[in-house]
Design a protein that fits this description.
heterotrimer, A alpha/beta (about 350), B mainly beta (about 70), C alpha/beta (about 260), A: alpha/beta, 2 domains, 15 strands, about 40% helix, globular, C: alpha/beta, Rossmann fold
Chain lengths: ~350, ~70, ~260
């Protein structure tokens, strides 16, 4: 089957890509700006075609725990929400991480804190990248910057989730979720018939019983388990860093931005170069693992870095850690649902060049 | 009429001495031992084995599932 | 294994009438002496054994005293977050409709923190079995007031007795779910006497049959004891339960389609 070109919203692309990825189940709850995912899936009714279960849960809490149950059976399951809903899901997410289960969680971020706004923001970076729930754990975090990537990262997300038995979060935002772009959709995949050996599907006489749990009362055993997780996260850091460079080879100044901000900064780079400033852009595609090594290398070549985010300054902390004092690092951000303009970013860059 | 005779086996190690079997026994077969098991519980035992009719009441009410029951017609 | 036996001559394989099912593991239960959890675990294991369901069963365990149910039943299990078992079971049963799925939950898990998950799973008529152990107290955390604690009943967080004016009234979750169209069979039982154990076993077996027939949610409450936190001996606790719990939580079927159809005739 051929790939198919369509004009879609980012949210719709996630939904269609989930069906095509051969997902077994989606469990969601309405919240702006991501309700189109649930709406699209309900309308597509994939139970009739691929057999995919789609259910509107009674809450985000229930939805993520449905994901937990389904993931424990070795199924390809996912949920989506936006910031306040993702906060509610944190309990389930830490259980899923603590039970080492694969799943995909899509966060179409809106501004906060609290009920905040329904406009796009990138203020859930800490929550996504640094844990979110209790206990030592990490999600693999993918940051799409286009409708195409929202579709593509469904498949990639499931692949990484099963490879590492770890929850994966797609950290999108209200702008990419709502905007329409052309998107190439992958051909329909069959739903997997293989059952992972750890899955709870009923204990046949041929194996020991499988137990999905995150409970361990013996501190020695719990520490061993924590160490096992640390090793896994290190393997992920080693193998799964993804990023994109835009005009970095001769850059004197570097912008670091992901998602919507990266789209803006791409334009800022063009504008600045038009004025003779050699600016480059590094766009992290994985936020965990973070492209620290590459940033550290680039810090040898550029004279300053600016982390551009729709937040009060969250990713900038990881940029600072990566650069480790080699060059000055600044944060430029807009909040409350405001997307920065390319000109604003250039103006900020100039002020820092002059100031520096 | 054939007389029904029963016999029970109590796993002493797992008995917690809750006495629920003793009060559930319709014939007064079971009593609690005067000595304790390795966990410190006064375990149940068939103090009057001749009275046992093998009805399994003790076994089905035992929270720890420590009693096995046999029955025969004499 | 140290054991004491009755009349030795009778102890022959052909005379065996009752032994512990192999669906229960050999692990010693961590429950306090006389606790009803062990009895319900065993009934459940016996039914899984007798109905040949071991390879078809996925059990969801709660947070509470019975969190370690998965140590004792030789079946595939998932350990849920507190109160969320019905959400897990919803997904599991929908993704694998041919399997036998049950949740096992205490009163804190099901009737306090998990009220929403319980009611909505029942309201959707999710086709699995909910086993609800109600002993009117939080056992594992040391005897705090539960949503089902009786009026006037003492606990570590209602040390002068539950004052319904400030602490609310006991919640009859079983009565609530019985009113929902999604539930098919709703019953309240106990396991403190051999006769009651037999009835509870019959009820759970019925629920298993109904699940095979895709009838909807089956809900079996077991009114149980907590000798340690009630601060009584097991035998006293069972008597107290009869005298105090049963009048408030009367035993019997709240919703039984078989009975309804008989009555209609």
């Amino acid at each position: 089957m051929e790939r198919e070109l369509r004009l879609m919203k980012g949210n719709e692309a996630v939904a269609e890509a989930a069906i095509r990825a051969g997902a077994d189940g989606y469990f969601g709850y309405p919240i702006t700006p991501q309700s189109e995912i649930l709406e699209y899936l309900m309308g597509a009714n994939p139970m009739e075609t691929t057999g995919m279960v789609v259910l509107q849960a009674e809450s985000e809490v229930a939805a993520i725990n449905m994901v937990y149950g389904g993931a424990g059976c070795g199924k390809k399951v996912m949920t989506s929400s936006s910031s306040p809903g993702i906060s509610l899901k944190q309990e389930g997410i830490t259980y899923i991480a603590g039970s080492e289960l694969p799943c995909l969680i899509v966060n179409v971020v809106r501004g906060g804190p609290g009920l905040g706004t329904i406009q796009p923001a990138q203020s859930d970076y800490f929550q996504a990248v640094k844990g979110g729930g209790h206990g030592d754990y990490h999600l693999i975090v993918l940051a799409p910057a286009s409708v195409q990537e929202m579709a593509d990262f469904v498949d990639l997300g499931f692949e990484l989730a099963f490879k590492y038995r770890n929850p994966v979060m797609m950290l999108s935002d209200g702008a990419i979720g709502q905007m329409m772009e052309k998107v190439w959709l992958s051909p329909q995949k069959e739903r997997s018939k293989t059952v992972p050996e750890w899955a709870t599907t009923g204990k046949p006489p041929t194996r020991e019983r499988n137990i999905i749990t995150s409970l361990e009362l013996n501190p020695d055993n719990q520490e061993k388990f924590n160490q096992k997780l640390v090793e896994k996260y290190n393997r992920i850091r080693e193998n799964e860093v993804r990023f994109e460079e835009f005009q970095c080879s001769d850059a004197d100044y570097l912008l670091v931005a992901y998602g919507t901000s990266a789209r803006i900064c791409q334009k800022s780079v063009q504008l600045a170069r038009g004025e003779g400033l050699k600016v480059g852009l590094l766009r992290p595609i994985t936020l965990f693992p973070f492209p620290s090594k590459r940033l550290s290398e680039l810090a040898e070549k550029v004279s300053l870095m600016i982390s551009v985010e729709m937040s009060a300054g969250q990713m900038v902390e990881d940029v600072l850690l990566s650069v480790n004092g080699k060059v000055p690092v600044y944060h430029y951000g807009r909040m409350g649902g405001i997307v920065p303009t390319p000109d604003e970013v250039v103006a900020f860059l100039k002020s820092k060049i002059i100031g520096g | 009429m054939a007389k029904i005779r029963g016999s029970i086996v109590v796993n002493i190690d797992k008995c917690k001495g809750c006495e629920v079997c003793m009060v559930s026994c319709p014939t007064g077969t079971i009593a609690m031992a005067r000595e304790v098991n390795h966990k410190g519980y006064y375990y149940a035992y068939p103090a009057h084995p001749d009275l046992c009719i093998g009805c399994a009441s003790c076994a089905i009410v035992c929270p720890d599932g420590v009693i096995t029951v046999y029955k025969t017609k004499l | 294994m140290a054991e004491v036996t009755g009349i030795k001559e009778i102890i022959k394989p052909e005379n065996l009438v009752y032994k512990r099912t192999s669906v229960m593991t050999d692990e010693t239960l961590h429950y306090c002496p006389g606790c009803g959890h062990g009895t319900v675990h065993r009934i459940l294991a016996e039914i899984i054994d007798e109905e040949g369901l071991q390879s078809e069963t996925i059990g969801i365990t709660p947070v509470g005293c019975s969190v370690f149910l998965y140590h004792y039943l030789d079946i595939d299990s998932q350990e849920a977050a507190h109160g969320r078992a019905p959400a897990l079971a919803t997904a599991i049963k929908r993704l694998m409709p041919e399997k036998f799925v049950f949740t096992y939950q205490g009163d804190g898990d099901l009737a306090a923190i998990g009220t929403s998950e319980t009611i909505h799973a029942c309201n959707r008529g999710e086709n699995f079995l909910i086993i609800f152990i109600n002993n009117g107290i939080y056992g594992m955390t040391g005897g705090q007031m539960a949503p089902t604690t009786l009026p006037g009943m003492k606990s570590s967080t209602s040390p002068f007795g539950r004052d319904v004016k400030t602490m609310g009234n006991p919640l009859k979750m079983t009565d609530i779910v019985a009113t929902l169209p999604g539930t098919y069979y709703v019953t309240r039982q106990s396991v403190h006497t051999p006769a009651n154990v037999r009835k509870t076993k019959k009820a759970i077996r019925k629920a298993v049959q109904y699940q095979k027939l895709n009838k909807g949610t089956c809900f079996v409450e077991v009114v149980s004891n907590c000798p340690s936190n009630w601060k009584m001996t097991p035998v006293q606790a069972n008597k107290w339960m009869e005298e105090n719990m049963f009048p408030f939580y009367p035993l019997g079927d709240l919703k039984d389609p078989e009975k309804q159809s008989t009555e209609q005739k």
